[in-house]
Design brief:
CATH class: Alpha Beta
Helix content: 25-40%
Largest sheet: 8 strands, mixed
CATH topology: Rossmann fold
Radius of gyration: 16 Å
CATH superfamily: Alpha/Beta hydrolase fold, catalytic domain
CATH architecture: 3-Layer(aba) Sandwich
Structural class: alpha/beta
Length: 223
């Protein structure tokens, strides 16, 4: 499998990303990390590894620059700037759509925490260019009115012990009238899915969802 560091231009900044491209990839999944996280997140790295095993290319990127991450430690004003994160995710989508190695691949988004709102906002903006979305412990409610515009099939994965976020996801589902939405609750899991087997369950559910909607050869049933 080929893996490389890439630079993605978005307005006046350059964002670093890690592109992994399995042989004969059937699609590509772009990761949108939550606040205080980036491409080195061990949780998203673990999910990405499972997607790669399933024949999916992955792009793990930093939605904030190093300087912005430093500012965030003190101001915390970037983490809820969904429009900023959305715009940068759109830029990453444009990047993979023009890169020779990935231009032909169907595109999906994997969003975590506030990154899930950015993923859904970008999916709303790009329409059928985004084939599927998965949210892990996400805050889709932060996407606001754009939820009603989302048409991408969306899987919302929430921990069973993450009560407030379960309610937020259920409320968001009621707004997503144009998308096929499924809520999957992982029993006993908290917000970070740190419990034994919880993250593995997230990875399996995600792989099956993306295979279903990105692999035009037709694959897996949802677990």
């Amino acid at each position: 499998m080929d893996s490389s560091l890439v630079l993605i231009s978005s307005d006046t900044v350059h964002l670093e990303g890690e592109l992994a491209l399995p042989k004969d990839a059937v699609g590509i999944v772009i990761f949108a990390h939550g606040s205080g996280s980036g491409r080195h997140s061990p949780r998203n790295q673990a999910v990405a590894a499972r997607l790669q095993e399933a024949g999916l290319a992955t792009l793990l990127m930093d939605l904030l620059t190093a300087e912005e991450e430093h500012e965030e430690r003190y101001t915390r004003h970037h983490r809820f700037d969904i429009q900023l994160l959305c715009d940068r995710l759109v830029a990453a989508t444009d990047f993979v759509s023009t890169l020779a190695e990935t231009a032909h691949l169907p595109i999906g988004y994997f969003g975590a925490s506030t990154g899930a709102a950015a993923a859904l906002a970008a999916a709303a903006a790009l329409g059928d260019k985004v084939e599927a979305v998965v949210s892990r412990g996400g805050r889709p409610d932060l996407a606001g009115g754009t939820l009603a515009v989302v048409t991408s099939p969306t899987l919302l994965i929430v921990g069973g012990a993450d009560g407030p976020v379960i309610n937020m996801n259920r409320e968001a589902m009621s707004s997503m009238i144009s998308a096929g939405v499924r809520l999957e609750i992982v029993p006993g899991a908290t917000h970070l899915f740190a419990e034994p087997g919880a993250l593995e369950r997230v990875a399996e559910l995600s792989a099956a969802w993306f295979q279903r909607y990105l692999d035009t050869g037709g694959i897996a049933a949802i677990i």
